[in-house]
TrEMBL record:
Protein name in UniProt: SLC41A/MgtE integral membrane domain-containing protein
Ranges of residues in domain SLC41A/MgtE integral membrane: 58-178
GO molecular function: monoatomic cation transmembrane transporter activity
Xref: Gene3D superfamilies: SLC41 divalent cation transporters, integral membrane domain
Top-level taxon of the source organism: Bacteria
Coiled-coil positions: none
Family membership noted in the UniProt record: Belongs to the SLC41A transporter family.
Gene Ontology cellular-component annotations: membrane
Entry keywords, A to Z: Magnesium, Membrane, Transmembrane, Transmembrane helix, Transport
Bilayer-crossing regions: 24-42, 54-76, 96-116, 122-144, 156-183
Membrane topology summary: Multi-pass membrane protein
Length: 184
């Protein structure tokens, strides 16, 4: 991808060392992003201390946001490699898909949290967080690879780690913001 052309490389013929060299920089981005995410969570220690039950949902909030983004990104990277997609139209469509997924998962998780923990406020916080995060995730999953593609970088290699870290950070910021408004 260094020559300004988007070519598909045959990774089955590349030496292992070359594959490691190409992947390490993006994994370091993930490492730094993970550390930043940990720092962000620590900034909300007061909220978590006030109601530790909020911590129960961090894994599922981050996971579902990432899963929706990864699904979108996988399909999108395949489409742009074949040049079969109009970016704005596809981004809108995927955002609507994310909205639908957010409604369904937000309702399910919100109801579950309400009954399990006996807290309408936490249930509403979880539900609204899922709605917002799953609507944002597909937008990022289209936007980030588009930037890589435009800059002649391999979106299949670098966009995933970058989009995942951004999504992780955003999903937690959204969660803690909503919790601080609704619960505290």
């Amino acid at each position: 991808m260094h020559n300004g052309k988007h070519e598909e490389e045959d990774v089955t013929k590349e030496p292992v060392e070359h594959l490691i060299e190409r992947r390490i920089p993006w994994l370091m981005v993930g490492l730094l992003g993970g550390l930043l995410t940990s720092i962000i969570v620590s900034k909300y220690e007061a909220i978590l201390t006030a109601d530790v039950r909020l911590a129960f949902f961090i894994p599922i909030i981050v996971y579902l946001s990432d899963a929706v983004g990864t699904q979108t990104e996988t399909i999108y990277v395949r489409l742009i490699s074949r040049k079969k997609v109009k970016i704005p139209k596809y981004m809108l469509k995927e955002s609507l898909v994310g909205l639908g997924l957010g409604v369904v998962s937000g309702l399910l998780l919100g109801i579950f949290a309400t009954y399990w923990l006996g807290s309408v406020a936490i249930g509403f916080t979880i539900g609204l967080t899922m709605l917002i995060n799953l609507t944002i995730a597909p937008t990022l999953a289209v936007f980030i690879p588009s930037i890589f593609y435009r800059e002649h970088a391999d979106p299949a290699l670098g966009a995933g780690p970058v989009a995942t870290i951004i999504q992780d950070l955003l999903s937690l910021l959204v969660y803690f913001f909503i919790a601080s408004v609704i619960i505290f």
